[in-house]
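B., you asked whether I could sanity-check this one before it goes into the benchmark set. Here's the sequence:
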Amino acid sequence: MLWFLARTFAISSIVVVVPLLAQRAPRLGALFFSLPLVSGLTFAMTWMQTKQAGVISRLAKETLFLIPLTLLFFVPLIFCDRLGFWLAFFLGVSSTCAAVGLWMLFAS
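And here's what the prediction gave me:
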């Protein structure tokens, strides 16, 4: 239980701190947002639980394939000032879901 609480605290701290940082220094916030902090913690925690290199390798491979697809989320948000936040957000989520859905449908 203590391990679960530690993991929850680590991940939630990132989610809380990055937006606060982004308000004061957008470039620094973007840097921390783009760092694979959650991925790194996930790999470390998975390794500590399983000690299986194959699991880590498969997770890294799948993550690497998904990164370009999930970048579609940011494209509409670039035009947020013209589209409005919620429309841009919806388009970003929709395009990402469509791309990931097609990948899951056709990837073997």
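One thing to flag: The radius of gyration is 17 Å. Otherwise nothing jumped out at me.
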